[in-house]
Design goal:
InterPro entries: Tcp11. Belongs to the TCP11 family. One of its GO terms (biological process) is protein kinase A signaling. One of its GO terms (cellular component) is sperm flagellum. By secondary structure, the protein is mainly alpha-helical. The protein is built from eight helices and no strands. Helix 4 packs antiparallel against helix 5, helix 5 packs antiparallel against helix 6 and helix 6 runs antiparallel to helix 7. About 2% of the residues have low confidence.
Length: 235
């Protein structure tokens, strides 16, 4: 029994040694092999990557499109080139493949699954990208809520880190279902934020919001549900 055990260990050692010996060769030729097999598959099914082609074409178009003169202009996605100094992406130079990919990945974070098909080459990463898109969406809504709340509550109340942190926690918890129920979510957020501001001003001995300002606060917070909302566009 001991001899067979030793032979088994020797066999495993030989397998590991063989794998380690072939690893440099496999790494050197794996890319060429994958490219060749992938090209064979494309030759048999030319339409296999139609959605990927559309995705990259849109990304290239977004880069070459001039940046809007006004930052408040609503758009479905903002070009990476617009964030570069002097609009570095909008010139006559050939498009950088890296820049196109950056723009493509940015567009995926703003993807509309109801009207657009996901690129075939990224189907394995779809869940992870959707989770990132949800986090980005939630951060956008959170930042929009804080901007509106600050404009109504004033600098003194927002100078309290405890108040701001509590407002963040409340908003983040209430916006977990924003994508599936935006109107109901923002209705709850607006009411809760209004109450927090009212109580915060009262606790600090400051003048609370009038009925008109409260109604305006509720309206602006509920308008965040709209994609073309100017505050969401800025964020």
């Amino acid at each position: 029994r001991g001899i067979f055990r030793v032979l088994g260990l020797m066999k495993m050692d030989m397998v590991n040694y063989t794998i380690q010996s072939f690893r440099p060769y496999l790494q050197e030729h794996s890319i060429q092999y994958e490219q060749a097999k992938f090209q064979e598959l494309l030759d048999k099914q030319p339409s296999l990557l139609d959605y990927t082609t559309k995705w990259l074409t849109k990304a290239a178009t977004d880069i070459t499109t001039p940046c809007p003169s006004s930052p408040e202009s609503p758009s479905s996605s903002r070009s990476v080139a617009c964030s570069l100094p002097n609009g570095a992406g909008n010139n006559s130079e050939p498009l950088s493949p890296t820049m196109v990919l950056y723009q493509g990945y940015l567009n995926l974070l703003l993807w509309d699954p109801e009207n657009e098909e996901f690129p075939e080459t990224l189907l394995m990463d779809r869940i992870r990208l959707q989770e990132m898109a949800f986090q980005l969406h939630q951060l956008t809504v959170l930042a929009s809520v804080l901007l509106v709340a600050r404009s109504f509550s004033g600098e003194i109340l927002f100078s309290s880190s405890e108040f701001v942190d509590r407002l963040k926690c409340i908003t983040k918890a209430l916006t977990e279902e924003f994508i599936s129920r935006p109107e109901e979510t923002m209705l709850s957020v607006s009411e809760q934020v209004s109450q927090e501001i009212h109580q915060g001003l009262k606790d600090m001995g400051l003048t609370t919001l009038s009925s008109e300002n409260t109604a305006s606060l509720l309206g602006q917070l509920q308008n965040i549900t709209k994609k073309e909302n100017c505050i969401r566009s800025i964020v």
